[in-house]
Specification:
Elements: H1 3-12, H2 17-42, E1 55-59, H3 68-81, E2 86-90, E3 102-104, H4 110-113, H5 115-128, E4 131-134, H6 138-147, E5 152-156, E6 168-174, E7 202-208, E8 222-228, E9 231-233, E10 239-240, E11 251-254, H7 259-268, E12 274-277, E13 297-300, H8 301-304, E14 315-318, E15 320-324, H9 326-342, H10 344-349
Parallel strand pairs: 1-5, 1-6, 2-4, 2-5, 6-7, 7-8, 11-12, 11-13, 13-14
Antiparallel strand pairs: 3-4, 8-15, 9-10, 9-14
């Protein structure tokens, strides 16, 4: 088991006392540094940069997958349906481009710009005409998206990237795992104290196949329900209902922050996969799928973008969709309407009316 998996089990399942006591002093130091950094921004010793268009940050306070990217896709589609040209900025984690920021197209190389950036382009550009820009400096990425015509900026992750000024924040929480043991890194999964979520405009609990966990936060939270769609063959484009894989020998591969979430959703569709969890953003090669048989391989969309060059008929991508209840969708739409109203571009063009 990788070090990452050992830590995740400790954070979210059980914490070996010796490991916890060893890491706790580092968590205290991490917390002091985080608090000092936030204080310097409040004093304007460190400067926040406001770009020329409204910015909505979708992020989390914990390490690992919480469902941010499906929500960003949902938001981009909603804004596009109102006539807004959306710019998505993302870090480009795992990309090895020689310079940043990078414009991302549907046929971009994940090796250059990262797997999440390519996924965002694939899911949003064809229907919504979204501008996707990747780069560690989100201010530079946002400015590049605006140069290309973006009227509203969505930042995929970047809650802690305080240099980029923002007009609104949505914090996403995994409804099942929530805040884990509640400790800051590395003794726990938190990038910032749990109290940070209360400063966001909206809190979305990402529920996979079940309701959100309840505590003192949940009464005011929105709930996004995530579920898997039909599988798509990476080589041929064939669509196949997940029910067709029930009762078959199937492999499932996931190189995401919380692989077990993907595996659990497959099981909820009657599939009993042989599971192969990998570290988040792990590279893919033909050898990754050498399991000694010819059984189908189901994988996340984020992993599928890394397999397009060598995939065969065994390889299937399983898209993830997100839905909201009527009341929660209204609250999200109200936030988007506010951003549309304050955007100089949409005011000048009459967009969003």
């Amino acid at each position: 088991m990788s070090a990452d998996r050992i830590l995740q089990r400790g954070w979210y399942e059980r914490v070996p006392l010796a490991l916890f006591l060893m890491l706790l002093p580092l968590s205290i130091v991490f917390g002091v540094l985080c608090a000092a950094r936030r204080f310097l921004y409040r004093l304007r010793v460190l400067h926040t940069v406001r770009v020329a268009r409204p910015v909505l940050v979708v992020g989390n306070v914990s390490v690992g997958g919480t469902g941010k990217t499906p929500l960003v896709i949902w938001l981009a589609e909603k804004l596009a349906s109102r006539g807004c040209r959306v710019g998505i900025v993302t870090r480009g984690y795992g990309g090895r481009a020689a310079q940043w920021p990078q414009d991302v197209t549907q046929d971009a190389s994940p090796g250059d710009v990262g797997d999440e950036a390519v996924l965002l382009a694939l899911r949003t550009q064809a229907a919504a005409g979204t501008i996707v820009v990747a780069g560690p400096d989100r201010v530079a990425a946002a400015k590049r998206a605006i140069e290309r015509g973006a009227e509203i900026i969505l930042s995929d992750d970047g809650l802690q990237h305080y240099r980029l000024g923002r007009d609104a924040e949505i914090v996403v929480i995994d409804a099942a795992r929530r805040f884990g043991n509640g400790w800051l890194l590395p003794a726990g999964p938190l990038r910032e104290p749990r109290s940070r979520v209360r400063r966001a405009n909206l809190i979305v609990e990402s529920a996979r196949g079940g309701g959100a966990a309840s505590d003192e936060l949940s009464a005011s939270n929105l709930v996004s329900v995530q579920d898997l769609h039909d599988a798509i063959n990476i080589r041929t484009g064939e669509r196949r209902a997940l029910a067709a894989f029930a009762g078959m020998r199937v492999h499932a591969v996931a190189a995401i922050g919380h692989p077990e979430a993907f595996f659990a959703m497959l099981r909820a569709h009657g599939i009993a996969p042989q599971t192969h969890p990998l570290p988040d953003h792990a590279p893919m090669s033909p050898g990754t799928f050498d399991f000694g048989d010819d059984a189908p391989v189901l994988m996340t969309e984020k992993d599928a973008v890394k397999c397009r060059a060598f995939a065969n008929e065994r390889h299937w991508a399983v898209p993830l969709g997100v839905t909201f209840g009527d009341a929660d969708e209204r609250r999200l739409n109200e936030l988007l309407d506010t951003l549309i109203r304050i955007s100089p571009a949409t005011r000048d063009s009459g967009g969003g009316s």
